[in-house]
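Hi,

I'm pasting everything inline rather than attaching a file, because the server keeps stripping attachments. The sequence lines come first, and each chain or strand is labelled.
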Amino acid sequence: MSLYADFRQDLSFIEKELEQSVDSSSPVIRQASLHLLRAGGKRIRPIFVILSSKFGEYSMENVAKVAVSLELIHMASLVHDDVIDNSDFRRGFETVKSRWNNRIAMYTGDYIFSRALVSIGEIEMPAVHQLLAETMLEICKGEIIQLEYQQITDQSFRDYLRRIKRKTALLLSSSCELGALVSNANADTVGKLKRFGYFAGMAFQIVDDILDITSTDEKLGKPAGSDLLNGHITLPTLYIKDDPEFQPFLIRSFDGTLTEEERIRMLGYIRQSGAIEKAQAVSTLYLKKAISEVESLPDGDAKNALLQIAAFIGRRKF
Amino acid sequence: MDRLTINRYIQNYIKQVEQSIQEPIVYRELGTMPLDEAKAFFLLLPFLNGEEWSPVLNISAIAVGAVHAAFDIHDRVDLLDASTKEQQLMVLSGDHFSGIHYRLLSSIPDFEFITAMSKMIGRINETKTDLFMGSFDETYAHIEAVNCIESGCIGEFQQRYGFSKYRTISETALSLIWYFNQLIKDTTIHRSMTTNRLKKEKIETAISILSGRMRKELLNADFLTPFLKQEIHRLANPLSGKPL
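And the predicted assembly:
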């Protein structure tokens, strides 16, 4: 991604640290972890840590420990999510559970979690650990609550926002906050960056949910409409869930009887319903809030990059 | 200290772990997590033997219990299909318990123990994976793997808080208990750790090796009260029933 260009050196250092962190003595775990790392990802959490830490006393060593830890936590949760969703592909790559089995996926996920804590364990700042622990627990709680909402159509806008907060926004918010904390940025800056991460994270997840409907199977690396097929109502579908014409699609998605032809028709229906535009408007609102938090921060490359990332989130196609 | 008092301490500890890891939805759907009493006994062994036990140690001990609960529930995730709500909750509750362990250690805060425990959790998962893939064909290597999985976290706890003299005895006893469980065909534990059924002779050989070690260790364990020695012997030899 070209907007990472100014921080390529920092990112490639973190990439090496990530590889070293999961250099396991177990051949299968090493293979599974490297398989995950090489499947790529946007590395948005590490970049948020790097950029936020630029507003304080930047120390690559500390920043890398936090960035590696957050990316590993994200990776580990994806491995376990694939077990829960019974997913065979992610970003076009075979999942660990599909290539091996659920047991190996559980061990690999747990191993990666443990390496995340080894990485951050070297930072002797209680606030950093307490924040990360709370974040991990909140994310997990969010996933548990999401199960409660699975295949439930009676959901409100508020329920959806609460879910995506825990699913995505919290870890991005904590990435910014932790980056600022380890570089001893002042409290006002820490607060602004934390809120930037939160608002950007909310927008990021809404865009992700939109792309699940508007993008192609090839670009997504999984069938478009997977959220619905897995029983999850997202923002675009929240707007039309009560439409009589859409109801049969919803019911058949949830009970697993939706045919391939019906899936294509369902995606077409959502795309032309106006729900995508409504969801985009909400995402834009969050992005504006994110930008306003950053605008008052000191000028510099880091501020510019955060603004560019916010703009990118709004127009991204992958 | 008599057996009744020991049991009371163990049950009290288990209750504290249960309270720490409780999550309303998980509790409603899966009920209380069964916690391993033998592991609780060896974790508390220094305390039961009269060693000083501070509130910080108690929090750390609960954190270790949360890790054991996470391991146990993750071992119950189905090999091929975890798409039922119950199975999905098993995945997430294990992650939740693991997060509780980190929160507890962060609250002390004990950075050294956070790192030591995390390294050990990583090692245990590596060992479980290798064991699952059928490595450790040789009996001694197999015993080492079981030692790591069954007592690794307790050993780290004992090491961190100056109770390293209890480490070997806990390791041997917990491994012996694991092999005895295999012998009496505890299929739940068995399935969770290996794909291939362990051969009976291999289990018996391991039991024989570990029983020999246990006898020597108990003879040399001058720091333990005679009653605790008897209790360890009883726990580690569930089939013999003979006194030490």
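Residues 188-192 of chain B have pLDDT under 50 and may be disordered.

If the labels don't parse on your end, tell me and I'll reformat.
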